[in-house]
Amino acid sequence: MSLNLLAIPPKTTATPSAHLAAALHAHIAAHFTDAHPAAFDGDLARLQEARDEAVHLDGHEVGVRRVEEYYALLKALASKFPDEINLAFSWTLSFPSSTSFFSSAPSPPSSPSLSTPARSSLSHAPGGFTYVAHPTLAYERAALLFSLAALQSQLACVETRLDTESCKRAVGAFAAAAGILSHLLSLIPTLASTFAAAPRTADSDLSAATLRALRDVMLAQAQECAWAKAVVDRMKDGTIAKLAARVEALYASALEHAAAKGADAGACELPKEWQSHLGAKRWHFAAAAQFRKSVEDLGANRYGAELARLQLAQAHIKKALELAKARNVSPALAADAKSLQDVINSSLSRATRDNDLIYLDPIPAVAQLAPLVGVSMAEPRLAPDIKDPSALARQLGPLFEQLTPYSVHLAMSIYEDRKEAMLRELEETKSELEADASSTLQSLNLPGSLLALEQPLGLPASLLRKSDEVRLSGGLARLQSIAADVARVAASDARLLDEIEAHLAAEKEEDDGLRRDFKDKHVGNREPSDTAARELRRRAEEFAQTLQQAKGSDDVVRAKMDEWEDVIGVLDGGEAALTAFIPTGAPTTAPQSSAQTLCVSRLRRALEALDDVLDARAALLSEAQAQAKADDVKPHIVAAQAQQQAAHEGAADEAQGAQMFEPILSEGMEKYERFKEEMQRSAHEQEQQLEAIRVSSLSHPLLSRALS
């Protein structure tokens, strides 16, 4: 492996692939009632095998395809399962704090148990590994892509770059790594919500600043390989200078991102030796670009410009050497810089001598030199199967084909929630309207006063029987006596419990005192008070809780008695009290006028109309409940899902999720709007009838007298 190029340290996982299969198996059993988990054992085995091959890489090119295949399967899972499946995916940090770039990494420790709660955590393992775990498939995909970028960088670094084909392969691998890192940057919003969930620790490898820095490092090294190819192919010095200038610009950009500390981008955790390496590379290629441009100036007889550029190159390579000598930086970097410095110094000595003795060309200031504009030969390159893995997923074969897609499952759940909310709203409106009608009729003493008016032969026999039952049972006085007895017994129980607790406390205090007095003498095997009286204290606590609960029940009964005391008193008072309480309850033979008769007739019709309104409202709610129970939106959603898959050649647009079915859900809920409208009309009709009842009741002298 080349020691003057950087390879991204790979991530390793501590989560066994069998745990992923087990988590999916449990999720199917818990959330898919129309499918049995055993029917998907083959799919689970395929997924487990694909993950095993993708996360255990040995640095060979075949690993790229394994990662792409597992990534395609993970993306396919998104259409069937939610992002969180109760499994924490644990991955190492490639750039933990105080990581040494050139230190060797041992094998990861054994994985945690599946019973570990699926929560995010940060842990340190033997061997210097730092693990970050997050319970989302999105994090598993992101960590996998990061590992793929690391693999591509390793493949590039093993190239010798001594021939054109090797340089091309290195350029392609570094560009592929940069493309993956750029793609990861587009996933930052999704990952941000995962990392923001407390108490989760963010994966610093996936911060925006770190990804931008690594992307530019990979691009710089790809451009460096293109520069090396140009050198091998003996291209013109001016072209090589422009290529080197672009290398310098990319390394400078990587250094800028490596120093980022903004809250929006997150801190970059690249180790100091990486930053020293990047700085040395930057000034090395700044010097190389000026040197190559000076050679072109010499060929064009621009001797002063040649000297100015050589002097600038000398200053740049001096900075590169200072950084290359930092601790833990590859010695190959310093050797390359020293070699270039020797060439620059030699050329500068020769150019200075020739210009002083022969050309006498004025040396321009650095600001007067023509700017050296770089030419890019490397751009981020994202593999088609990473950009859109649906084609590869279809090629690998269907996975969990018989499961209802998660977006369909979610859309159906949303629709059911909306129906339940609509029914609750109708039920609450119905209850409120009925309570309002009941309250209004009660305030008008209806329909009881109307019945008494229409039947002036005395009180109803059933009412008189109830009154007799109340009086024979002891009436209000009996209830008050029972309440007083309950209060007396409760007070007595409370006092007894207080005495018990006081005795226990006194006994403990006496025992503690004796033990202090005779601590140096033999006291036998007498148990401490806390031990001997433990059962008594436990029973005392149980009695206290029982008394507290009984007091709550007594308070409820007392409140009910206070609320109905007046009515019970009327029943206890017998026929005379009832006659006084209910208007026209006493026999009367006074004839009603025609106006009064008409008023009673209007009142009776209004009451009957109100009953019709209440019955119609109850029937309306029953109809809405029956329609909601029979309403099945699944066929429409499944059909829309099939159309979506056909439009996308077999893969639905996962980014939309359940939102793609919103038109179907909205259309389905429109048919319930009529129930809301009819409920509002019912409320208006009820108000009209209540107003008519109120006017008719107040218009009759006997009925209005009962309200005064």
**Proportion of strand residues:** under 5%
Could you give a short account of the major beta sheet?
3 strands, antiparallel
CA radius of gyration? 44 Å
Question: In the CATH hierarchy, what is the superfamily of the domain at 17-199 and 384-396?
Answer: alix/aip1 like domains
Coiled coil: 412-443, 669-696
InterPro entries: ALIX_V_dom, BRO1_dom, BRO1_sf
Region (Disordered): 508-533
Domain BRO1: 4-443
Give your account of this protein's structure:
- This protein has 708 residues and is mostly helical.
- Among the domains are: 17-199 and 384-396, alix/aip1 like domains (Serine Threonine Protein Phosphatase 5, Tetratricopeptide repeat), CATH 1.25.40; 406-429 and 594-707, Four Helix Bundle (Hemerythrin (Met), subunit A); 461-516 and 527-581, alix/aip1 like domains (Butyryl-CoA Dehydrogenase, subunit A, domain 3, Up-down Bundle), CATH 1.20.140.
- It has 25 helices and three strands.
- It has helices at residues 17-31, 41-55, 62-77, 137-157, 164-186, 188-196, 208-232, 237-258, 272-299, 303-324, 331-359, 384-387, 390-396, 406-443, 448-454, 461-472, 475-517, 529-532, 534-572, 574-581, 594-630, 634-647, 662-670, 673-699, 701-707; strands at residues 89-92, 121-125, 129-134.
- Strands 1-3-2 form a three-stranded antiparallel sheet, covered by helices on one side.
- The longest helix has 43 residues, at 475-517.
- It is elongated and about 140 Å long.
- Mean pLDDT is 84; it is low at 99-121 and 585-590.
- Residues 412-443, 669-696 form a coiled coil.
- Keywords: Coiled coil.
